[in-house]
């Protein structure tokens, strides 16, 4: 249960203070009979993780507000392994949006099976394009951070943790579906806001994971976007319909 998970994470030294980002031996001390006491950070003298007493909805709201404390709680002090599934679902949302826009631009309403088959493969193609762009974006970020701060990404676990943080922080893409379903005149503006929100979340994830200032994460994201668009342009020149 919670006690076993707590001991396992403490043994790995995985806990962090959500205020100062220093390593912590434990989040709370169990005095039995339901009596728990939140541990105090030896560095900043504040609770190591106040969010362990919070409702998940409150934590989610704080994460949406891009609070560094909420990000540290999620990334360092909880065991969440949904980043892979979340990534796939976000890519499906993006692929569906592109596929829908592609169908809207097509005036062919022929119910023939071949037409429906072609439209189905169009969706798979959109999924592949979205995956390609996402991969290029992440590779651009990793290359930039590795080049500028080599000492921060020197182990495999560092790469995995940052990848997990970036995938989890892309949850804003889930808003693409309701933005399309409730389509109105301001949908393009909503989609632009969703894109900006995802980039802000990615920036905060990099900042929290590597304990950086605000400038370097944005620089990494900028080069990630350049790399993403560069790969897309390259495939277009090769004749790929992306």
Automatic annotation (TrEMBL):
Entry's Gene Ontology cellular component terms: cortical endoplasmic reticulum; endoplasmic reticulum membrane; Golgi apparatus
Protein name per UniProt: Protein ARV
Similarity annotation: Belongs to the ARV1 family.
Keywords: Endoplasmic reticulum, Lipid metabolism, Lipid transport, Membrane, Transmembrane, Transmembrane helix, Transport
Transmembrane segments: 126-147, 159-182, 216-235
Natural source organism: Ciccaba nigrolineata
Record's keyword annotation contains Iron-sulfur: no
One annotated GO biological process: regulation of plasma membrane sterol distribution
Annotated signal sequence range: none
Function: Mediator of sterol homeostasis involved in sterol uptake, trafficking and distribution into membranes.
PANTHER family, alphabetized: ARV1, PROTEIN ARV1
Pfam families noted in UniProt: Arv1 (PF04161)
Chief place of localization: endoplasmic reticulum
The keyword Lipid metabolism belongs to this UniProt entry's keyword annotation: yes
Membrane topology of this protein: Multi-pass membrane protein
Cellular compartments annotated: Endoplasmic reticulum membrane
Alphabetized InterPro entries for the sequence: Arv1 (IPR007290)
């Amino acid at each position: 249960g919670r006690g076993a998970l707590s001991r396992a994470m403490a043994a790995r030294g995985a806990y962090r203070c959500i205020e100062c980002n220093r390593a912590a031996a434990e989040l709370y001390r169990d005095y039995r009979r339901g009596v728990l006491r939140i541990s105090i950070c030896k560095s900043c003298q504040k609770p190591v993780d106040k969010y362990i007493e919070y409702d998940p909805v409150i934590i989610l709201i704080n994460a949406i507000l891009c609070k560094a404390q909420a990000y540290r709680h999620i990334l360092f002090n909880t065991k969440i392994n949904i980043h892979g599934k979340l990534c796939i679902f976000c890519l499906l949302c993006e692929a569906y949006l592109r596929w829908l826009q592609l169908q809207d631009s097509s005036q062919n309403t022929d119910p023939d099976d071949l037409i429906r088959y072609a439209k189905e493969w169009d969706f798979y193609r959109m999924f592949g394009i979205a995956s390609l762009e996402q991969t290029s974006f992440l590779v651009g970020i990793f290359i930039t951070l590795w080049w500028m701060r080599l000492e921060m990404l020197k182990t495999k676990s560092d790469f995995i943790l940052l990848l997990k943080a970036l995938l989890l922080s892309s949850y804003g893409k889930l808003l693409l579906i309701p933005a399309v379903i409730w389509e109105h005149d301001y949908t393009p503006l909503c989609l632009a806001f969703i894109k900006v929100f995802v980039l802000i979340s990615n920036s905060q994830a990099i900042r929290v994971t590597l304990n950086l200032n605000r400038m370097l994460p944005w620089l990494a994201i900028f080069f990630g976007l350049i790399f993403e668009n560069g790969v897309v342009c390259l495939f277009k020149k090769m004749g790929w319909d992306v």
